[in-house]
Structure formats: structure tokens, C-alpha cells
Design brief:
The chain contains six helices and twelve strands. It is α/β, with parallel strands linked by helices and 232 residues long. Strand 1, helix 3 and strand 2 form a beta-alpha-beta unit. Helix 5 packs across helix 6. The N and C termini lie far apart (35 Å).
């Protein structure tokens, strides 16, 4: 997935306020499950949220991308990190909190796999636990034909990432073109990312099918909303 960009992932997303996002996650959990002590972050990437969340929880992480996990392992040397698929993972233990942040849920691609992912997260909940899923864009919120440019300007690292938003049925398509400049030279490469455009009803249905009652925080962490589910 991030086959070429994993090494520069943290630089590309250096604009994200992981500390504020993690603090908001903790606040939402405390309001609903005061005293929660264990947390699993599904699609944890390079571990930047976990790096902050460990202040409040005993943490573990899971991701399908081995390159991102290698970076996370360097950051979280004493934390269990698992290379598994979010739709079918089995860790043989349970947690008070299971999170799936930064819209990673969109990468499951289909409604069937959305249901499988939420069911897998639910199977790893302690009784009374809570699942938090940050959604990707809805079908009506995704616009095509919009050019996007992201830049990084550090002393020894220059990055330009460009794409024009596209759509293929119910998938948002991002054909990212990268220019990366380092003291060793300039490199150009491309990556294709696809993320499913699920509706609010589809998210709610996946939570209900897993036996979770769901509430929706409209703003969430970065304006994309947040689904919070608990058994019952």
C-alpha cells in the first residue's frame, strides 16, 4: 500500500496533531468508560497515535503494512505490534478500547469487509468496552477533479505530492505522484490508493451487525466524524 512512501510517511503527515487527536480519544473514552486501561490501535501505521496514548493505556498495535510497522517498532520498542489484516485478525486477547483512526477503515474497500473489520474489532473487546472508528469520506462528500498539492520543506528533505481526486464506483481513487529531494538526489514515483466511500447507514449497519450500539460524533478528531460503539 505505502510501498514507496513508507520511509517518508511521517514527514508527509507532519502537519497532523497526533497529540491533540490522542488526547481527544482519551477524553471520549473517559466520558464513557472511566478507568479503561488497555487499548488496541487497528491500522496503527507508524505508531504516532500510540506514542501518545501509551500515557493512559497499556497499548498494542496492528497493521497490514509491514513497512509502516517497522517504523512503529523503532518508535515503540517495547510494544506488541502485529502484522495482520483488520478484517480477520486474531490476537487471542481482549482490550477495553479498540481504535481505528485516520480514516484507515476506508481501505477495507467493500461493505462486506467493513462488516468483517468491525466484527473483528468487537471480538477483541472486553465486556463493556468501546470501539472508535474514524470514517473516510461519504459518497456525497467526495468530489472528483480536484487537484491537491502537499509539500514538505525540511533542510535535507523536500517533498511534493500531487494528485487529482478521482472515483471508481464507490471507491475514492488517489493516484499520488511524488517528487522527493534529498542530498542523494531527486526521486520520482507514484502510488495508487483506493478508499471506500461508505454511507452513514453502512457504518451504523456494520456496528449493529457486530452487536454494538453506536453513536456518531459529527466532528470527531479532524472534522471527518467518529463512530463510537459499545456492546448492547
Amino acid at each position: 500500500m505505502f510501498t514507496r512512501s513508507a520511509a517518508i510517511y511521517d514527514a508527509v503527515y507532519s502537519f497532523k496533531d497526533y497529540a491533540a487527536e490522542a488526547a481527544r480519544v482519551h477524553e471520549l473514552v473517559e466520558e464513557r468508560l472511566a478507568g479503561a486501561t488497555t487499548l488496541l490501535d487497528v491500522a496503527c501505521g507508524t505508531g504516532k497515535h500510540l506514542e501518545v496514548l501509551r500515557a493512559w493505556y497499556r497499548i498494542e498495535g496492528l497493521d497490514l503494512d509491514g513497512d509502516l510497522l517497522e517504523i512503529a517498532r523503532g518508535r515503540l520498542v517495547d510494544v506488541p505490534l502485529h502484522e495482520q489484516d483488520m478484517t480477520s485478525f486474531d490476537l487471542d486477547r481482549r482490550f477495553d478500547v479498540v481504535t481505528c483512526l485516520f480514516s484507515s477503515i476506508g481501505y477495507v474497500g467493500t461493505v462486506e469487509r467493513l462488516h468483517a473489520a468491525v466484527a473483528s474489532m468487537t471480538r477483541h473487546l472486553n465486556p463493556g468496552g468501546i470501539v472508535l472508528v474514524e470514517p473516510w469520506f461519504s459518497p456525497e462528500a467526495w468530489t472528483t477533479g480536484s487537484p491537491h498539492l502537499l509539500t514538505v520543506d525540511e533542510p535535507d528533505l523536500k517533498i511534493a505530492r500531487l494528485n487529482v481526486s478521482q472515483r471508481d464506483g464507490r471507491l475514492a481513487v488517489m493516484e499520488f505522484s511524488y517528487l522527493v529531494g534529498t542530498p542523494a538526489g531527486v526521486e520520482h514515483f507514484s502510488e495508487r490508493h483506493e478508499a471506500a466511500l461508505f454511507t452513514d447507514e453502512e457504518y451504523r449497519s456494520a456496528f449493529a451487525a457486530a452487536g454494538l450500539s453506536v453513536e456518531h460524533d459529527r466532528h470527531g478528531l479532524i472534522g471527518r466524524g467518529l463512530y463510537l460503539g459499545r456492546p448492547g
